Amino acid sequence: MYQFKSKLQVLLTSAFALSLVFCLYILNQEQIFFEKGEHHGITPRNALPRVSDNFSGNYSNISSPKSILAAVTGGWGLETWRTETHFLYLNIIMTNYVSLCEFGYNVTVVLYTYEGFEDWERYIDISEYWCSRINSPINIRMELYKLRKLTPRAFGTAGDLTIRHREIFLREKYNYDIFLVQEDDVSVRMVTIHYADLWLDFFSGTFFHPSFFDLEVYGPERYISWREKNGKIISLRDRLFFRRADDGCGGRSYIMTNGLLQKWVLNEKEWIDPSRIKGEFNPLVGSSCWFKDRKKVQLLIPIENYEWKKAAIHHLPNKYIKNTFRERSTILTDEDERFEMIKEEELALIFDSCFMDFKSLNNTLNVTFNGPSCMECLSLPSQELEYNAHIYRNSESNLRGVIVTFKCIKT
Predict the structure, then answer these.
(1) What's this model's pTM, rounded to 2 decimal places?
(2) What's the pLDDT at 268?
């Protein structure tokens, strides 16, 4: 017993040190977000009075605290999941919610996993997640559920744990203003949650909803999901938004208000029934896919003032970008290109071209624009822009570039 405790103490000590490194890294990344947050004007057609100063890209602590319930789906009930890496991810996640509390939100975090983790307090010290604004740790609780296998109609995971967040939401639907669910290996930053909160207000009463996207890091570069390479740029209420072409929902998370929860979930028994899920289970249950498809909601990302960067959710293992570089040094087929991720700075250049002539952009990247410009399309009434970014890469020749094609579409 003494030997086990000694080993555990060493593990936790080393985990704390590594956690500090991870947290400093995340804070540095957030600093980069804001340092690069140059503000651009919009085209004359869109230069109308703003709806609210809250949408200017400048943030201050919220004046009227909202309550948020965040459900974190975790595999800690499985002994194989209780690794140093997974607890480091959890520490990053919880630190994000402490930041959210300090910012002004009233935060409750429900960690939920499979049965077998009754001794969870040996691994998670609630007192570490102290919020000085409320002079106490944030509200954290653990819920344990039986492992139920998926039906033959679903695939992608061992059990149906993810759907349990719906039971939690329904139980608490009158007690919180905002509901969010996330996986246990992604970082949903304070700035991302506040971004979603503001744009939920902006889209209130419409069929639009703020979207997230996946981001991974490889070396010094930040890579964004391949799904953001194709879509449309549209104007709505005097602002420009990106709507992806792919059906994917992004972010391994979703957020909604209590009003939307009550409005969209009319048949509660059906909503919590895992046997009704057909396809890849976790994305269909734990992302905005479920209401995008059933409620015909359009997911949008605002692109003005680098607001879109706040929608990034970091997939902490960086698995997919690592696999990309490990498996191929050159894009050889259309299938290779389809799943090639775009760099953050490349996407920034594309979106920037909607606010200034692309010939005037500081294009130090190998990005080529074809067709009419974004500004040209959007300057005309009743038009939106379709865009496609095609990536070519040969790591052995140190060659990489993006060909961007714009097309004006009548609405």
Answers:
(1) 0.86
(2) 97
